[in-house]
Amino acid sequence: MDALEAGVKIALKSNATLTLLHVVEELQPETISVTGETGHASIEDLRYQAALIRESKQKLEDLAVSVRRTWDDNDTFQINSVIRLGNPFHKLEQIIDEQSTDLVVMGENLPSGLEHFFVRSHAEKVVRKISCPVLTVRQGIKIGDFKKIVFATSMSEEEHAIAPMVAELQILFGAEVNLLRVNTPEDFQRDRSVKDYMKVFALNAGIKNPTLHIFNEVSVSEGIQFFASEIKADLVVMATHGRSGVAQLFSSSIAEEVVMISNVPVLTLKV
User: Fold this and answer.
1) Pair (157, 226) in one structural domain
2) Considering its fold, how many domains does the chain have in total?
3) What pTM was computed for the model?
């Protein structure tokens, strides 16, 4: 529900349409028994799937009604509920294309053990591959009004693609923007060079009166988390990179790490 609250607040502020999406995973057309024999899904399985779709549709519609009652303070707020059958990630991509979605808001739990591995893999896939901005909100995080934003920069040219979004959020929420560069032993930059870069970057992006910060830490992801907690930030914004194949196995995205450990919502954009 924390992610839903964030989505509603952004939709109301920006006069946008909010779509509630739930995907019921489709039964495999063929099943494999413990003895290795293949067979089609049974009639009972198909009936169960149909009943699950009906139940999920009703719950989603009830949720949409509840949101309207709780949050609808004007007649222009539009909220839709959509049920899809199939692979959750692929259906999310499909909805984004169909509706020209501007933002995906995703909830995140932090289970442990083997379950944590699979949940983490799913979250990382969305952050890494979805083409539009993704806002990830961990369960239990209190949602503010995004008045204090941390924009974590690696000082790369690719990040210019995400800068206009930060400027837009600043205007939308009347927010304070904190530009952050984390220095690590492996990637150290002089204060003067960093601040000169940040000033030009903010000016070109249209970010007004940013506060410039350099934070020293052993890893970038931990530096972002500690700094955001230290200043009581409402939102962390950063770029991420799509990867595949062997590069995916041996290169860990800082943005994905921050999504998993951050105590505040994280907004990412694949560049």
Assistant:
1) yes
2) 2
3) 0.82
